[in-house]
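Hi F.,

I've been meaning to write this up properly since the lab meeting, where we talked about keeping a consistent format for the predictions we share between groups. The idea is simple: the sequence comes first, exactly as it goes in, then the structure tokens exactly as they come out, then a line or two of notes. No screenshots and no reformatting. I'm using this chain as the first example so we have something concrete to point to.
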Amino acid sequence: MATIGETAEFLGVSKSTLRRWEREGRLLPDERTAGGQRRYDLAKLRPNAFHSGPDTRTTLGYARVSSPDQKADLERQARMLERFCSANGWSFEILSDLGSGINYHKHGLQKLLEKIVAGDVDRLVLTQNDRLLRFGAELVFAICEMKDIEVVIINQGEEPTFEEELAQDVLEIITVFSARLYGNRSDKDQKLLEKLKGAVEA
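Output, unedited:
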């Protein structure tokens, strides 16, 4: 008996597609283990039998940086996402945003959410967990789980400390206020923002 991963590879689809087919009654597991894991008999499967039409769901890669001086990092993220998705043989689209992680109205993020809700996404790929949102990413991940969308984080890395996360959050908030005050460019406002940033980064 094959695992869900082995079966997905055999049929040339993703694991989330197999779960969706099970819900739709198109392909049921031959058995389940004591732990509830799906098992399939590959000898009974014919790959072409499950492709009555094209699967329009795609992989979405999402990149984001907070400020214009990070454009080089935005391009680096996009290239990393492209290479990663290509290496895995996924059909993909890359979305990107230049804006704060606490701004929920960014164009790329709005398009990403629309596609997730519409059921057009098979997989969401991020370079790092905080690239999606500073606050609320867990809610988006929960929606992905309900929609059987696989979430892939390329760089897991070490978890930041509480102090590091707090400093990052404060810097995000300062970035938002910086953008709002940028128009008047008063020396007083600029000096205040620089002092706040310096205090957080110290």
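Notes:
The chain has three domains: 4-50, 58-153, 162-201.
The chain has a mean pLDDT of 80.

If this format works for you, I'll send the rest the same way.

G.
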